[in-house]
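RETRY 2/3 - previous attempt timed out on the joint model. Re-submitting the same 1280-residue input unchanged.
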Amino acid sequence: MVEISLNTGVRKEVPAGTPFMALLEELPEEMRRDAVAVKVNGRIFDLRQAVTDGGEVEIVTGGSEEALDILGHSTAHLMALAVMELFGDVKFAIGPSIEDGFYYDFLLERTFTPEDVAAIEKRMRTLRDEGNLEFVREDMPKDEAIKLFTGLGQTFKVELLNDLEAETVSIYRLGGFTDLCSGPHVPDIKMVRAFKLLSTAGAYWRGDEKREMLQRIYGTAFFSEEDLSKDLTRREEAKRRDHRILGPQLGLFDIKEEAGGGLVFWYPKGYILREIIETYWKAEHRKAGYDVILTPHIARSELWKASGHYEYYRENMYIIQGEGQELVLKPMNCPAHILIYKSKLHSYRDLPVRYAELGTVYRNERSGTLHGLLRVRGFTQDDAHIFCTPEQLLEEVESCFEFAHQLLTSFGFDNYKVELSVHDPDQMEKYAGTEEDWQKAEASLLAAIEKRDIPFRKIIGEAVFYGPKIDLKLIDAIGRGWQATTIQFDFNLPRRFDIVYVTSEGKREYVYMIHRALLGSLERFIGTLTEHYAGEFPMWLAPVQAILLPIGLEHHDYVRSCLEKVRAAGIRAEADLREEKIGYRIREAELQKIPYMLVAGSKEMEEGTFDVRSKARGRLGAKKIDEIIAELVDEIDTKA
Amino acid sequence: MVEISLNTGVRKEVPAGTPFMALLEELPEEMRRDAVAVKVNGRIFDLRQAVTDGGEVEIVTGGSEEALDILGHSTAHLMALAVMELFGDVKFAIGPSIEDGFYYDFLLERTFTPEDVAAIEKRMRTLRDEGNLEFVREDMPKDEAIKLFTGLGQTFKVELLNDLEAETVSIYRLGGFTDLCSGPHVPDIKMVRAFKLLSTAGAYWRGDEKREMLQRIYGTAFFSEEDLSKDLTRREEAKRRDHRILGPQLGLFDIKEEAGGGLVFWYPKGYILREIIETYWKAEHRKAGYDVILTPHIARSELWKASGHYEYYRENMYIIQGEGQELVLKPMNCPAHILIYKSKLHSYRDLPVRYAELGTVYRNERSGTLHGLLRVRGFTQDDAHIFCTPEQLLEEVESCFEFAHQLLTSFGFDNYKVELSVHDPDQMEKYAGTEEDWQKAEASLLAAIEKRDIPFRKIIGEAVFYGPKIDLKLIDAIGRGWQATTIQFDFNLPRRFDIVYVTSEGKREYVYMIHRALLGSLERFIGTLTEHYAGEFPMWLAPVQAILLPIGLEHHDYVRSCLEKVRAAGIRAEADLREEKIGYRIREAELQKIPYMLVAGSKEMEEGTFDVRSKARGRLGAKKIDEIIAELVDEIDTKA
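RETRY 2/3 succeeded.
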């Protein structure tokens, strides 16, 4: 007998081996219907699984993120069954739920057409409604599972099993489809109420270019049609904002497969945007007491051996055989900053030393993981390293956090999530630095967050081995989260590189070292910005801030002379002097998402005005050119 | 009998085989004494060599650059003889004359001390004055020379001989020293009148880290003591300006061997200087109708195979093995610019397209060739590519040339040398593009130079295979030349990458493509700037423009409030508030070569003034703070 306390308040004793399902029997029908799984000591279980230990049992219901994960994964199994039934000879790879729905990867000869996908979706509904299907879980020894999947011809599953270290594995059956799966799944297939298959894509098995190319079908699933409909609208909205489309369309940036995946080409307008951000970033950093530096993109392997990256990070590093020496294309800027710090002996009076660099780094990411500007192989971190004394710690961390807040809000991100990753005190042996170092560092991170009085999530054991950290995730205009700021301690590198300062007593002590990136990387941040604003950047960031449009040839001279005036005021303006109809040129300027269109015909020319159209505020009517300039300059200066 | 016409006006017939020396016999004693060698059809001969063909014979006299080359090389032989006599068992590597004197590389067990060098110099003088020495030339079959040098134990010479493709080689003897040498040498050892051995250094045999480390002795030689003395003064001056010393000393930049040779670390102040140049450069380029872009540092090998670099430039490229694909760390920016050009189809109406990039490239240069910021492995070209129609050619080239002139003079270089490298019409088969292309391109380059009406050197056959070019060499404050601008046509890449535009008749034609870098590279240019100004940069470039110095603690508040005012005016100012004596702080500011020192004591505080000391103009006396600000801002704005 084990003692269970449900989060509904009920406490009961049941025999070990009772299915969780049975615990719900006394609950009201409504609650029971909504139950998707249970959570015991942080682990999620299927309602079909059996109680083994006592403790708190939390019911996972339809409203939670975890329930959506389970639902998505269950829908993936249903899709796999439908594909199997429709197309016969299919090899199944993996079918996880993801942040944004689910997918399954299949190997089959036929290439899925849109009609196929519609047929799969239809078959899924039929199976759900008429198939009398149920998820059946079975635990079995690994050997037996290998035999089972070998018999089924499911070689990917066999490969996965061979790589597993467990002795016992679980499989799930749904009708004729059997999957290697740790679950859980929804208790009732009818819960797969509202779903849609979204798209197909090619994907390498295990993301490895040298392995089989599979066909992936993406889908999304919800517990209600209303939620699904909202999701589809959100997806439409996200598509409209997709930076991978807007980038080339607005002349901002693009990725060129001829040159290689994950490498960004900055087009003229995108480079202007990037330069504005860089210039602003550097000015703000100098104001905040940082020294801006620049370090080479390559360095001898020895440096990366000293830092430990060569041993622990090697597979992500691009390595070059040079003249009699091996070089590394830098994956991070730290060792270079350390070399500059160490170019002289620092006294406590010199500290804090704060080196900032817009440091372009390259990392050998798998091609399967690349995504537009968000996940790339070459990116520019807005990096800085702070070398300080223990006494300066709190102030430095607080300043970093404040600085991040200031910078992010100035770009229009008022909303972000905070995560604090700290050490696991039970596993102190796996960390660099002393317990005291960690406590001091974590206390300073916590104090910085609490000073701002914002909610945060503290994750014990989530810190990397070299130090605790704060992460900020931006929330964009349509509610999506994007990784940005990291403020991270490092107790490893000061010891590896002997980074010291001379104390007031003349002793040499290790510095406290903080890595931090506020925007994260320029690439990811500009990708995020593009989606946040759907390419309609605020004035101070817009590559072209105003376009002047003469209605006819006879207005060209007027427009030209005004263009000069506008430009002289520091406004990034263009004139469209092509001999196209005004309607056509206005539409083009709209597509280019230029904040202001200034149209001039004979009336405007006589009066020294323009008919002003604001992308954000609509048609503003005729205004004198000087008035327009003053308003635009003000909008730029205030970063409105 | 062959017919000779001397450039003294004399014409005569002599038997083939007559030594050139004999041709001089009728010349006045003075002229004869001054003759060092002769030049026949552009080739230089020893006076001891024999006339073989007829033609124009020009006498090379002591005043010319060529004569100094010959003298330097002859002095190197004399040095080698002295080393042999003093130290016995020596292996001789090579001993050329260089732009700035001469050297010889030796392999011996003993490490040369300063005393050794003094002894060598002394022995050289004795040998010259008392040795009765003469340079004796001997031509012999290669095999025989190999036998000779093998017998002498001169393995480096044997290695050189084995690599030579000639059947006959020449050797020169001077006393007991025999060298493999194509000559020429001075006719009389007494001509080695004024020389000095300057320094010793280590150098790898053939610049190859894996081969023997040799000992090099540098020297300099002139025909008169006066010239030597001038040269030594110039060398002292050059040492004072050495950017490799000033870089770290002024906190500008440094190279760190731990990270690898030829890789520049930009310190805070150096980065400010670089950023000022970059910002100015970008603004001027946008004004001049360029689009500024940014492209990745790595790209797949395929792109470099398409461009031909992989085949012809491979040993200078850093190659990376990526995930299933080979990548190249870009040695140039062209292919990336071409990809951007090709991202859409261009009409003649879109041209010229001008893409500019501060593009950081990496080239695998031999470690022996590296030199501070002048010869590096990683550098940022101020690169641009112009794609235009044949009609636009002349205007584009003229604009480039004008732009270079404007940019270079704005940095204080009023003086430069121009070289025009054109094709050799007799070897048209080795060039890309048509004869017509070349003529058009060369005509436009010539027209651009002639428009400015400045002297230039036209070098036939010096063009690279893909197009003719103009090079500009800056002349610095002490008369040294520094490579800067290149304007270069390319008839190769448009064909390799199919870079076309649509003509007004709707046909596709290859564009004309121009590569150009105006400053050359930021690294080399900043190295040059540092030496040109000896680190005393003009106001607009100075990383720190003014330093405020309170005499005592009681003046700190006054200085702090003025510092804010000065900074608010956009002046890069600092205050030295350390509790050190004012004299000490002034000396430090002087060493840092800060243009303005503003000193305040009680009198200045009362009057709202500072005692102004200008690095360039000395002590300027007390001035009101607002007046100082206005003057400084004016000096900055006018780039005075």
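The mean pLDDT of chain A is 94. Closing ticket.
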